[in-house]
Design a protein that fits this description.
The complex is a heterodimer of chains A (106) and B (240). Chain A has one helix spanning 35-41; strands at 5-6, 10-11, 17-22, 25-30, 48-49, 56-57, 70-73, 76-80, 91-93, 95-96. Chain A has 106 residues and is mainly beta. A 5-stranded mixed beta sheet of chain A has the order 4-3-9-7-8, covered by helices on one side. In chain A, strands 6-5-10 form a 3-stranded mixed beta sheet, with no helix packed on it. Chain A has a two-stranded antiparallel ribbon with strand order 1-2. The radius of gyration of chain A is 14 Å and the shape is globular. Chain B is of the alpha+beta class. Chain B has 2 domains: 7-147, no CATH class; 159-232, Orthogonal Bundle (Arc Repressor Mutant, subunit A). In chain B, strands 1-4-5-8-7-6-9 form a 7-stranded antiparallel beta sheet. Chain B has a two-stranded antiparallel sheet with strand order 2-3. Chain B is elongated, with a radius of gyration of 24 Å. The termini of chain B are far apart. The chains are: A mainly beta (106), B alpha+beta (240). Chain A binds chain B through residues 5-8, 10, 50-53, 55, 57, 60-61, 64-68, 70, 78, 80, 101, 105-106, and chain B through 80-82, 84, 117-119, 162-163, 165, 194-196, 199-200, 230-231, 233, 235-236.
Amino acid sequence: MRILNHPILGELKDMETVTIYCDGMEILAIRGEPIAAALLAAGIRTFRKTVKTGEPRGVYCGIGQCNDCIMEVNGVPNVRTCVTLVEEGMIIKTQEGLGKSGGLHD
Amino acid sequence: MVKNRYIARINCLQPIPCNPCETSCPFGAIYIGEDITNRPILDLEKCKGCGICVAACPGIAITMAMITGDAKDFVSIPYEYLPLPLVGDTVVLVDTNGVDLGEGLVEKLNRPNKKDPTTLVYVSVDNTITDRAVGIKRKVASIVDVIEVVNRIEIVDPIICRCEEIRESEIIEGIKKGDRTVEAIKRRTRSGMGLCQGKTCNRLIAGIIARESGISVGEQAPSSKRPPVGVISIREMSEE
């Protein structure tokens, strides 16, 4: 689900890939794309479960405003995946509720 | 009425801060003025129908039309999808709501600004739809009819505050108990206290209060805003 030929932006060429891991699954992402784009391209649409009802959530606004697409990234919860770019070896986890802090900022 | 030449049609409905139409026009035919949220005003005499503003408008809110006085008029519509229609193709034209108006025949394709990839599709249409035709329906088998799908969705008690999972019924309940401000609803339900800090729900809640109580959004007491713009941890704050 990537737009490889865009009527305004042109063709996507010279793609450099990086490897990220989502809930243990290896995903090939394109350098320079947000985490959310890589996950959607890999068919992953549920990024987190809500606090109260446990309902699934994913991309909503896609511009860093609504915080619906937050996940745990390298141990840090509440990371907005739509505005955070992929990095080699990133460990991403589906966030359950408020998420668990266990990384850099713990 | 200007006849037998193309004239821009500005279909810009909202007063938003945007002015590439004004700055791109080589003939000074579009006026917005000091206040960038003004809607554009077109000088029909100065407009040469070149189409540069049509390609420049980021909201694809400008088209062109040529009134002939005959049964067939012509419209020129920006098209930013692939594949592009071809000369001689029949296309379906739509109005600002995406509703089908009928078919037209593609006469010409043009890119008015060589640095701008937006293509204009020139179509001959029945003169009955000239005024309303502002878009060309995509001819792709897999594209669902969005209007049809939206009409089929039955919305039951929509979520208003996405972060705190507050539904419309909970807001209405608060209004019934006497809440008349976004702040009061916030204190009752926690709406707007989640990660996005009310960026998504505050205006919706103000609208619901207006609808249910009759107090317009402008008359409601403003809510306090205490941003951080993004999420930071308590530890980061304490280290500062």
